[in-house]
């Protein structure tokens, strides 16, 4: 299959592109900036004209839209400023003839919620990142229904792995270790989250993008709640760090639930139904 991946130079996009190559797909990697390590097609899809989109996405079977600026800064007002540009990009993509589209969402669309999240869970986002993503989800579901396009909206949960290149607590732990700090302050660590390794996430994204049986909101997650404390201490042990976590030094963020995880039933069905094999270009 001929896949286009926007945000291919980003934290998640690099792993998704590599997974697609491993499975034997032809991959068009698109990024706003060129990479010296890995050749990508330089294009700012949020500013591109209809002609640019038609030219770059000619004969593409499916597009995975991962591009999103300031994704690690949940409070940035830029999310509001840019969200309509994402909508117009997908609209141009559809007008260019692409009928299979996968877009990265986030569990922050949900807002404050305790328990298991499924595709029907009511969304009430409470930070700019979640609000913008939720608006885009609602808008694209309507747009794609109107144009008979297969849209997979992937609700991503807490991502781990490749920790030098993300902005998570695990990256901060590594940085504190390098700075020879003895302790690392945390909140209570008792909150339960749904953690997924970026390599497993990349696999889920690719396999979901390939199929069209399941559309709409699909959780990309492990389906298993794990306490932050457990994950932090496991990370310290696995990495052989000497730093010691100090709990109850900070309150939890107001939009972080005490316990939230994804219903993984759909993604598990998708993953079990598509064999991992070379499929040819």
From TrEMBL:
Coiled-coil annotated residue ranges, if any: none
Pfam families: Epimerase (PF01370)
Keywords: Oxidoreductase
Annotated ranges, domain NAD-dependent epimerase/dehydratase: 5-208
Class of the enzyme per the UniProt entry, highest EC level: oxidoreductase
InterPro entries: Epimerase_deHydtase (IPR001509), Lipid_A_modif_metabolic_enz (IPR050177), NAD(P)-bd_dom_sf (IPR036291)
PANTHER family referenced in this protein's UniProt entry, alphabetically: BIFUNCTIONAL POLYMYXIN RESISTANCE PROTEIN ARNA (PTHR43245), UDP-D-APIOSE_UDP-D-XYLOSE SYNTHASE 2 (PTHR43245:SF13)
GO molecular function: oxidoreductase activity
Lineage: Bacteria, Pseudomonadati, Bacteroidota, Cytophagia, Cytophagales
Protein name as annotated: dTDP-6-deoxy-L-talose 4-dehydrogenase (NAD+)
The protein's Enzyme Commission number: 1.1.1.339
């Amino acid at each position: 299959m001929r896949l286009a991946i926007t945000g291919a130079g980003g934290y998640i996009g690099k792993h998704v592109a590599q997974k697609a190559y491993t499975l034997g797909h032809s991959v068009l990697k698109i990024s706003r900036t060129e990479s010296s390590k890995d050749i990508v097609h330089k294009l700012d899809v949020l500013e591109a004209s209809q002609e640019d989109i038609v030219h770059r996405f000619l004969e593409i079977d499916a597009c995975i839209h991962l591009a999103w600026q300031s994704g690690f800064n949940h409070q940035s007002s830029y999310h509001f400023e840019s969200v309509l540009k994402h909508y117009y990009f997908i609209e141009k993509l559809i007008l260019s003839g692409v009928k299979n589209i996968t877009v990265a969402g986030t569990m922050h669309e949900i807002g404050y919620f305790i328990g298991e999240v499924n595709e029907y869970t009511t969304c009430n986002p409470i930070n700019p990142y979640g609000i913008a993503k939720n608006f885009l989800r609602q808008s694209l579901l309507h747009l794609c229904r109107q144009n008979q396009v297969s849209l997979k909206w992937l609700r991503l949960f807490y991502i781990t792995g490749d920790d030098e290149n993300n902005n998570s607590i695990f990256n901060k732990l590594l940085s504190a270790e390098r700075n020879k700090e003895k302790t690392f302050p945390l909140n209570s660590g008792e909150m339960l989250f749904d953690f997924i390794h970026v390599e497993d996430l990349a696999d889920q994204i690719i396999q979901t993008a390939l199929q069209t049986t399941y559309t709409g909101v699909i959780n990309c997650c492990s389906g298993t709640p794990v306490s932050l404390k457990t994950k932090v201490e496991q990370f310290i042990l696995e990495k052989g760090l000497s730093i010691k976590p100090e709990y109850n030094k900070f309150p939890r963020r107001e939009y972080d639930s005490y316990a939230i995880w994804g219903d993984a039933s759909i993604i598990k069905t998708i993953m079990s139904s598509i064999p991992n094999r070379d499929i040819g270009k």
